[in-house]
Structures are given as structure tokens and as C-alpha cells.
Input
Amino acid sequence: MAEVRELQDVYGRRYRVGESDRELLGRPRTWVTWLAAAAMLAAGVQQYGFGALVPVLAGTHGWTFGAIVLSLAVWAICQAGAAFPTAWLRERGLLPAPAAMAAGAVLCAAGLVTLGHATSLLTVFLGYSVLGGLGTGVVYATCVGAVLAWFPDRTGPSAGVVSGAFAYGSVPFVVLAAALPAARPALLDGTAAVVFVVIAGCALLLRYPPRHWWPATPEPRTWALDRAHNRRPAVRHYRPAELFRCGTTLALYLVVVLAAAVLLFDLAYLATFVAERSGPGLAAAALALLAAATGSGRVLIGRLADRLGRHRILRFALLAGGVAQFVLFYSGEHRHAVGLLLGVALAGLGNGCCYTLLVGLVREYFGEESAAQNFGILYSAKAVGAVVGIGLAALVVTSHGFLAAFAAAGVLSLAGAVLSGRLTQPGRPKSLLPAA
Output
């Protein structure tokens, strides 16, 4: 085993070298990518598969549509709110990755079982929204943190694979839920068992490297000066307590709020909107395509972000997501199946890809020292997005119909695109930044 040393580059970043991934893990670090992706694939069913259950829950129990989608809003609030505390506890050695994943496995399974057997909305809110949301948030934060820790030299592609799995893992569930509505309890019990086994199995193997760990290649100080990989390195490292002292944080937080609001609006309302006009078959296809497009888009953008610039991709993604909302309403209202599916694909590639970009933007803007915790703080904007995109949207749908709701979603995404164009790296004048 080589001598373990700590190096420092011209930007003040520290690197722990001398330990290989095989020495620490007993296998290549690519295993971490697939372990985290498998856990995210299982955990994401609760978010991306929920829309397929809304008609069944309403028809079986007579619950109102507004009350059912509100449970998704509370779930998203709990899921997003768990990200920062999970990272904070892990950094202090109070919640190791295996324990976090094991707890997440139990809570995620509990959320799915609740949806299969609950006979009251209070049970749904407690079991699915609170327990299931917290469990998914713990798994999400642990898996993203693992990518940040094991792939400091190529975070974008790995984050794309892991974040993408959170979306497209629900596609089989959506198809089965739509095809077998009467088998909801059995389907959810079986899904809960699979989710528990997958996440708990990952808990047995997933580990974090020592702080500041760096792989054997490339040489870190040479890598730090390579503009192909470090287009705009952070000026300094921001601790969580410092984050909201700079204006960029608020602007980026608002961008995440707007992107999350539109994506969650589509997840909550699109299937019902389409089912009322074109039947449950097309609604299920639209929901499955939304998850698939979001997942595959995250993988693609994760690979392109370093090359084309996250700032630029974020702006175009939000623009595409905004246009998609108008395409969705027009095609759905006029029963144009092809146009509707094209709009769904555009929506998934747009608003659904922002979280992958957020992982890289946090490091680019605020440095690596507290990247996982800083990501957790900014990811919590999804909770505010849930209030806007699901809670307030319910009032708009009830009082003004789907036209106003889709139009408002489109405007919010376009506003996010405009706001993202004003993002600047903290501590560096905008006029000195290279073209992104």
C-alpha cells in the first residue's frame, strides 16, 4: 500500500492520495455507482409511480382528487427536507451510510405497504407521506453523497446515472399499476418487498471513502488546472452556515423551486388530465414516458454537463420544460396522442434534469468541502416547489381548470430559465467568467 498523503491545489482544494478504491472497497469504485443506482431505482417508485395510483385510490375509497395529490405534496416536503439532516449527521459520524440505507429500506417499504392497505387519508399521510418520504430522502441523500465522495474527478456522469435511476426505475410499476388496478394491494406489497431487499442489500455493501479521498489517476493538481474538467472552479469553499450570505444561493434556490414545482405538477396532474380526455391507457403511457424521459435525460445531461457547461444546459432545459407545458395542454385537450407524448418527452428532458445539474453546480459555485450538505440545503427547495406545484396548483385547477394550471406551470418554468441566466459564481465578477 502506497504512502497516504494529503495534497493541496492552487484553489485550496485538498486531496487524500495513496489509497486505491480496491484497497478501500475490495472492488472498483464503479460498484458504488451501480449500488447507488439500484437503491435509487427502488426508492423512486414512490414519487414517479404515484400518479398511476391516483385513479385507483379515488375509485376505491371515494377520496377527493385534491386530498390524494396533497399526500404527494407532503411526501415531497418530507423527502426533500431529509436531505440536509442526513448529510449533516453523516459528516459528524452519527449516521453511517449502511445505517442510513437500512433505515431508508424499512421506511420506503412502509410507505408502499401503506398505499396498498390504508383505508383512511390520515394513515396515507402518516405512512406514505411522512415515513415513506423521509425514507426516500435518506436514501437519495446517501446515494448522491456517495457519488460526490467516490467520483470527485467525474461527478457529472456518475450523478447522471444515479439520479436518472430515481426516475426510470418506476416505469415497470406504472405499467403494471395501470394494467392491474384491482390488484393494487398485492402489487404494492410485492413492490415493497422488492424495494426493501434492493435497498437493504445495497446497505450491506455501500461505503464512503475517507474525507478528501482521490483516485490513483489523474494526478489531482494537474487535473485541477485542466479547463476541460474545471471550467469554472469555485473561488473558495462555502460552509453551510455561509451559504445564504451570497446572492447566488437565493437565485439558485428559486430556480430549483420553479423547476421542482413544474415537474411535481406534471407528476401529480398529468395522468388525471389525460385519462379524463383520452382514457387510462394513454394516461399510463404518458406517465411512464415522463419517468423514462426524465431518467434517460439525466444520464445524457450528466455526460454533457462538463463539456457544454451546466449553466447553459440548465437554461435550455427550463426553457424546454416551459414550452412543454403548453404542448401538453393543447395536445391533451385536442386528443392528439403523438403531440401529447412528444410534450411529455420534452417535459421530462426539461424540468426533470435540473437535479443532476444541481449536483455539479453546487461544487462549481460553493466548492467541495461541504458539497453534500450544501446540496442538501439547495435540494430542500423541492419542498417549496411541492407547495407551489401541487398545493397551489390544486386551487388553480379547482377554480380555473387545467388551462390556467398548465399555463401557470409553463410561465414558472420560463421564469426559471430567465432567472438561471442571471446566476453568477460567488466571488467572481460576471464579466470575468468565460462563456458557459
In short: Confidence is low (pLDDT under 50) at residues 431-436. The first strand starts at residue 5 and ends at 8. The chain has one domain: 5-427.
